[in-house]
Amino acid sequence: MSLFTASTAYARPDLTARTRLITLGLIAAVVVSSFLGRYDAEIVGFRVRVEQVVPLLLAGWMLVHPVLRGAFFRALRHPVPLVYAAFVVWNVVTTLLFSPSLTWSASILIWLVIDLLLLVSMMALAEGADLAARLGRLSVAPWALVGFAAYAVANLTRGQVALGTDFDYLYEVYVARVTAIEANIYASILIFWTLLTITRRGIGRWEIAAVAVAVPLGLVASQTRTAVFSLVLGLGIFAVFTLFSLRSSWRERITRILPAGILIATLVVTYGIIAAMGGTAPADRTLPATASPSASVSTSPTGTAPSPAPTREPDPTNPEQQNKIGDVDFVGGTIGFRLEVAGLAAQEMKGINLWLGNGTNTFGLRHEQPGTPGISGHIIMLPVQVLYDGGIVGLGVLVLFFVTVFVCVPRERKPVAAGLLASYLLSATLTSMFWFAVTWILIAVLLRPLTEDERDLDRV
């Protein structure tokens, strides 16, 4: 059993057929909207995303309905939302103290509050969390295969048909994002739901086969190395935790981790083949990605006449495709970019600001994006972002939040939670996943009480 039972969240109230239909419909819409990060609109000077609006509708519905209101406020008293609420409050405090522009910080602060409402709404009803889990599980293979189809079509047609993809100017290859905001987020959504699916008790053979075939193709389509490392790490920790923590026979433990082992095998083989096939050197990183011959002119050593500097402008209609998957470079590329951003952030992490932060979302007020003059910088690494915004205090509250999540997960689901949280933390360290709706849906799904099927299988 979990330390905190369903009495503080995940209610099962008696609802009328109409209320149940509307509520579950809104929960399904929240899950669907988490896949639609690409779509937003400007409202009162702020970029508002679909995945932000739909959770507000769900929370509003629960707050106005007399039966659902009680379930909502009981869920709010659960330790996980309470710790996260403390994190939000600290962000408000450090922003009031140190942010040069409250308006600039407000966009992320509002997003954090929406995430809190989303988390509580998804934790209010057990049936809603179960529905979210089913929808996420059913999305894995289609999400992966649609991404691979978009990737294949875009690269085979050299961008003539590029629906659901972005052009990576550094490696000159089209990468799948489908309806996510970018390829990293597409891949992150894929691996998180994959982890919950492949580690599910009682998963069938056909579902294992579909996941083992589709997921590696989806990750190849995203061209994202972080997602691969995160998925393998999560599956590995799940396997180790299962082998040494469950009270069952060794045969049952091996059977439990076998689907994860099959996925790791197909993933390693697929990525190994793709990485080995790439024989070209990475793109020339000494030049700006948008460099043009007419804009790059240097003066000769004598100072008498200008001479054109060597330039190469990537052409999306005629790309020189590079081996992105096989390129792991700590000097250039995306890894080098992240290290440069971290170095810039470290300039303000001193004295009181190291402890209390610099204010939420203020990095872009002080720094431009490296290599992109005129564009406000942003930190895409969760620990660095939180340390910069909220200082050691803020980072400490965030660590406490994830620890609380793990403690509150039902005991029988601890191996899954260990793998998913490890995978999430690695992925969020190298991407910007924390703010998106999928994070809070996954946490609510992890924390929900055991289903009848899970209890029955646990007795076997």
What are the defining features of this structure?
8 strands; mainly alpha; two-stranded antiparallel sheet; globular; 460 residues
Tell me briefly what this model is.
The protein has 460 residues and is mainly α. 62% of the residues lie in helices and 6% in strands.
Overall helicity: 55-70%
Major sheet summary line: 2 strands, antiparallel
Unreliable spans are 1-6, 282-311
Our Rg estimate from Cα atoms comes to 23 Å
Strand order of the largest sheet: 1-2
Would you write up a description of this structure?
- The protein has 460 residues and is mainly alpha-helical.
- It contains 17 helices and eight strands.
- Helix content is 62%, strand content 6%.
- The chain has a two-stranded antiparallel sheet with strand order 1-2. Strands 3-4 form a two-stranded antiparallel sheet. A two-stranded antiparallel ribbon has the order 5-6.
- α14 (382-408) runs antiparallel to α15 (414-430).
